[in-house]
Design goal:
single chain, 133 residues, mainly alpha, Arc Repressor Mutant, subunit A, 2 domains, two-stranded antiparallel sheet, 5 helices, 2 strands
């Protein structure tokens, strides 16, 4: 998994790490059982503080995306689309979706274009990069 972060972004680094891991799972680059780099290794690779990586991993653990074990380290907990969402996930996700759609509306993005873009993004998941859907 190639993880890229933008040190100049307004998005906190731990959130960028969390987002890239979730995207890699949705893209099929990481599957259930895939090991993630240790917090210290990833921090060294990205030249950031390991506490930042630890915060990202803890967030992923809280959200049920990874499990953390003393022996195996951080491991992907489930494949994208591997069954029904956990209880309460859809409601929590809708709250975040509302904020994203509010941002789109504030910046003048119409409903049709927002739906089109949502469809394009959803359609892009589940395929490895460079592999046709």
């Amino acid at each position: 998994m190639l993880l890229t972060i933008d040190l100049d972004s307004e998005v906190p680094i731990y959130q960028q790490i969390r987002d890239r891991v979730v995207e890699a799972i949705a893209d099929g680059e990481l599957v259930e059982g895939s090991a993630l780099p240790s917090t210290r290794q990833l921090a060294a690779d990205l030249a950031i503080n390991f506490h930042t990586v630890n915060k990202a991993y803890d967030l992923l653990r809280q959200q049920g995306v990874i499990r953390i074990n003393r022996k195996s380290g951080a491991v992907v907990r489930r494949d994208a689309g591997s069954g029904p969402a956990e209880a309460g996930f859809a409601d929590e996700w809708q709250v975040r979706l509302r904020t994203l759609l509010a941002e789109a509306a504030v910046h003048g993005l119409g409903a049709d274009e927002a739906l089109q873009r949502c469809g394009e993004v959803l359609g892009s998941f589940g395929t490895k990069k460079g592999t046709p859907a």
